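Field reference: "sequence" (input) and "structure" (output). Example, Glucosamine-6-phosphate deaminase:
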Amino acid sequence: MRSSLIEKAVPLPFVARSREAMGQKAAEDIAYELRRRLKVQQGVRMIFAAAPSQSEMLAALIRMPSVDWSRVTAFHMDEYLGLTPDAPQRFGLWLRRAIFDRLPFAAVHLLEPGTDPEATAAEYADKLTESPIDIVCCGIGSNGHLAFNDPPADLNDPADVKIVELDIACRQQQVDDRCFERFDDVPTHALTLTIPRLLASDRIFCCVPGAFKKTAVRRTLQDPISGLLPATALRTHSNWSLYLDEDAAADLASPEAR
């Protein structure tokens, strides 16, 4: 079921003193949610973001005890077009290194563009809609994007997965994150899950560290809900949590680090 664009109560962000503490707390909460669901469900279906902002959380998550990963099915939310299959910047490969190859998942569905990205988008959408998505682990881009939905994004997009053109700020972030050496090396297009597809999940955990995300964080929590700042759509979800480090929370009023 898709989320209606009605603002819900905004959760109080968890502000940690370091990226590592942020990742640890998020991982603890995600693991708790996994254990809780696996007590009453046959399996759990999760979507993961691939980005340096998720590194600390993923590193902590693989260390969490008593999670039956053999009953967890994994997806990821976006992938570049135009890179070779073995390019280290590919998000599927990044997630394999970070978590997918390090835990015994029931299944991992990689978003592989292949030679026909339009067909890939349709096939991936079908896999996503086979059963509800329980959990999304995401970040927020420096331009406020969710997945690769750059502004202005369609918050009511009828598609589940589609081809998008990446804007300049999004491509520059990939250089700032040291994923690419030069701006011109960053692909211009990608496949992405849409915002309605992400918001259709039951539970969202959002990790956003770093000073260069502080403006996006403030605007996510304070700007009007709009495709001009796609992450504001998180405020229409009834069950999401936001994890920050002190740098990312610097523009918020009196953030209290824990």
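The CA atoms of residues 14 and 155 lie 26 Å apart.
The radius of gyration is 17 Å.
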